[in-house]
Every structure is written in C-alpha cells, then in structure tokens.
C-alpha cells in the first residue's frame, strides 16, 4: 500500500482521529452491552439492536458503529495498493470509499460466522441471527464490490476485436458500452422503483425469528448502487477519453507480481 495521501491531504489526520474516536466509543458501548447481559433486568440483544427505538444504548451503539465504519472507510481510501487503478475520474473517490467499506464488511462476516460456529458446536447454543446478519452484510459487499470493479475497470471484458480497432473506433465502442449501461440502469430503476420504495417505506422484514428488514434495505440499495455504477461508468469514460490506446494481449507481464515472486524466492 502507498503511504502517501491519495486525496485527503491535510484532512488525513482529523479523519484518523475520527476513526479512532468512533471505534473507541463503539468498543466501549459494546462492553457495556455485554455487561448488561448479566446485570440488567432488560438486557439489549441482537433482536433489540435492529429495533433501537426507545433504547438509547442501542442507538448509541449503532451511531458509533456507523461513524467508525464511515471514518475508517474514508481513511483507508486515502491509500491504494500497487495493483490498484489510481483515481483519475470525478467519481473515483466515492467508489474508493465504498470499496473500503466492502473490505471492512468482509471481516464482519467472518466474525459473525466464527461466533456462530463456536456458539453452536462448542456451547450448543446456536443463534437466531448469525446466518441472516451475514447474508445482510454480504448483500451490500456484493453490491459495493460491483461499484469498485467498475472504478478499477476490472469487470470481465473481451478485447479480441477492441484491440484491433483504431483509437477513434475504441472511443466509439466505449461510448456505446456506457450508453448500454445507462439504458440498463434506467430500465432497472423504472421497473423496480415503486416496489423498492414500497418495501423501504414499510421497512419490510425477512419473516424469520430475528426478522431483519432485508427486503426493505437491500432492494432500495440495489437501485441506488446500480445508479452509482452508471455514474462511475460515465466518470471512467471521461477520464479515459484522452488516454493512449491500450492493448490487452495474453502475454502482458505484471512486473510487480514478478518482483514479488522474486523477493519471495530470495527470502527462502
């Protein structure tokens, strides 16, 4: 990872402090919630966490967790890996923040599933919420990963004909591709908006014992993020318009990967 600031500049320090502060508050609140399980007459569990109305401690936990995730995603987006595409479009920074949120969320899925396995097989106390929570988080990881893939130009593409075209024809092909993405986005939003809006307004739940509002949150998120993907596609088109022609032969050499392998062999 590059340690130099990619886009935050002088705001990197305050964002880092915000990340540490919200994370500390979330951990402190979590400890209080754990203690309350043993000393409180009305402990707050996972069922109450998704129904926080009238429960200040649950609301504080959700607020601090949201703040920690937001500031951590912004802070981590200020560094990029050696194989990542550097931000060059007007929308790239939003997509980078979303990508870091998706990366962090993967750790949450692992923690939730690890807790479920230990609770089920070591203590014979399976949870009612682990499977649905991991499914809920994974839904957003999948959607945000699509946005990140668009920003990185890493969706599957077939270059056999594209590479043979002169640059003017390549630009035409890029415009057609973006127009098709915009058409797909329009039809998806047109056809799904009323259903997503209805589910969100009534915060439709999953119909299980824990009963999280998966349909009421995931369905609107699909439409919102597909719109962001379309905006990112337009951003890519504008950013790449004046780039030199690129060829994607099968014999392209990843110099960084070769150097990494060489160092690994030398260390052994």
Short description:
By secondary structure, the chain is mainly alpha-helical.
Molecular structure report:
This protein has helices at residues 12-39, 46-49, 56-76, 92-121, 130-151, 167-201, 214-240, 255-267. With 268 residues, the chain is mainly alpha-helical. The model has no long low-confidence stretch (mean pLDDT 91).
> Would you tell me the structural class of the helices and strands?
mainly alpha
- The H-and-E topology, N to C, reads as HHHHHHHH
Report the biggest beta sheet as strand number plus sense, adding barrel if it closes: none
Number of strands: 0
- Mean pLDDT equals 91
> How many helical stretches?
8
Give the distance, in angstroms, between the N- and C-terminal Cα atoms.
Answer: 23 Å
Gyration radius, to the nearest Å? 22 Å
* Share of β-strand residues: under 5%
Shape: globular
Low-pLDDT runs: none
Specify the helix fraction band. Answer: 55-70%
Topology:
Layout lengths: L11 H28 L6 H4 L6 H21 L15 H30 L8 H22 L15 H35 L12 H27 L14 H13 L1
Helix pairs in contact: 1-3, 3-4, 4-5, 5-7, 6-7
Supply database-style keywords.
268 residues, mainly alpha, 8 helices, globular
